Amino acid sequence: MKTFASVLTFTLATSPAFAGDLITGLGVDDVFDQTDTETGALIIEYHADPFYSGQIASYSLAGAGQIDGDGDVFIGVGVSAIWSIGQGPWFVEGSFMPGYYDAGSGGSELGGNLQFRSLIGVGYKLANNSRISIAIDHKSNADIEDINPGSETLAVRYSFDF
Asked: Is Signal given among the entry's keywords (predicted)?
């Protein structure tokens, strides 16, 4: 919990100095109930300005933090992408972030602290440089440990540029 609060504080404290996107999300962790610990989740992400931006897609370095009602914490860093759907406001988002996972008391034991989070979502660009989306992520240790139940989080996300 302290680590998540530290990352959130750092992100918010330094955000005026850096351009990018701040994403907040509310969702349900363990949504497919493989670990029998379904609970609410809070997600905070920072996506830096794109290192590549084309007509259809843009790619950015990103960081994410997630905490759920069981006290499970995930903090990861990786790459995010946004793909435009035609010329309209719809888009597809995705990311891949290796990171540190800690199972809270009564939380989801995922077989180790090193977890890989992949995310896919669909969203709508709003008029004020913000976006809303629905996304699902999957956290897994990629079978590098003997135990690997995986965990999914379904979330509604709000993103704004600054």
From this structure: yes
